[in-house]
Amino acid sequence: MSTPEQDLLRRALGVLTEMAPAALELGEQFRAAGHELSLVGGPVRDAFLGRASNDLDFATSASPDQTQRLLARWGDAHWDIGKEFGTIGARRGDVVVEVTTYRTDKYDPASRKPLVEFGDSLDGDLSRRDFTVNAMAVRVPELTFVDPYDGLSDLAAGVLRTPIAPERSFDDDPLRMMRAARFAAQLSFHVEPGTLAALVAMADRIEIVSAERVQAEITKLLLSDNPRAGLEVLVDTGLADQVLPELPALQLEIDEHHRHKDVYQHSLTVLDQAIAQETGADGAVPAPDLVLRLAALLHDIGKPATRRFESGGGVSFHHHEVVGAKLTTKRLRALKYEKQVVKDVSRLVELHLRFHGYGDGAWTDSAVRRYVTDAGPLLERLHRLTRADSTTRNKRKAKRLSDAYTNLEHRISALREQEEIDAIRPDLDGTQIMEILGISPSREVGEAYKYLLGLRMERGPLGEEVATEELRKWWAERG
Known about the structure:
13 strands, 23 helices, two-stranded antiparallel ribbon, Beta Polymerase, domain 2, Hypothetical protein af1432, seven-stranded mixed β-sheet, elongated, 479 residues
């Protein structure tokens, strides 16, 4: 009976054999020139997990200049953007490779940027990898497996462990702590106790890492198949206190009467449920969707600041959606997310409670129009966020909420068919307004446009004749 490690090795050899012809030829060229070449890192790990890749990372004994000459002969194109770090890239057909000279990095304790020193052995190069599961290699062209830090056993056990002492590894490169959370999410692996203890002890070291690099890790974590696992690592180790403090702040102390649910666990559940409602590439919200996932995670971050225990024994979070939208904007800007992502996520947080005014379906057509117009291009995401926000265990209540939202969606569809609701405009445009009122471009034109848009929302299509009459009345009342 084979061991898990043997099963993984057989799987990896099958994947490598399929994806490796170009890599084997490259290995032959390096060997003929007297140099070592090994496939390293993620492509090796993924081969053991049964995943092939056309983006291949290699380590070599060759110098950057020697590597560049060899890749120029092998590839259709090559580039030296990373040459100062020992990395040369090339492409041949669909295969993209990056080849890096063996390295033994040294770090300035006040900076995450390494002081690059080239090494002389594959084992030494692998020691500077973040985790043992990424510190495995396959020598080419021989396809000899190299595993000096027992990464295969950790891969079989689903464990994240550093190749060297975790304190030294994280001190050298604090971003590796964020990667621990990210790989927990991407691979559904758990962090071994010693590594976890180092994460807790050294969490504040993440402060020296740039916001852009932290944001990139958070994004990869959120776009993974299991972001909850990674987020729990961030919160449990204290890393979230440094990079996303609004998340652990949701762990509100529950009073003795248990007058509200655990907001932190609720938010993680809403994220899970929002992910389950994403659609494929041809759907309205293609998976994975960063905006929806960020909004689901952050939708209640205004609750800690707005929690009030009422005299009658209840608890309230009045206007937490408004406060939450502002906090969302502030945090996402600090993490250097692009402007449109910040704007869209904050808007969803602001709108996530709007549906709860729908009640038993008593909204007027005007209210439905405003709901759609306010959501704009975010409507499909708002649909999913609103449905995901129902985490009650009361089946009757859950069904009532779901049925009410289904009713609202049907009304939106009906109005859309009647009025092309997504493109609601006043019955008169700016040019017509100026001609009718005899005025030039000015603030009054915008006010008139806004007034007619309000009428359009309240009463539906008016037609040019009625709209003109209403416009003249409005203008006369203004004097």
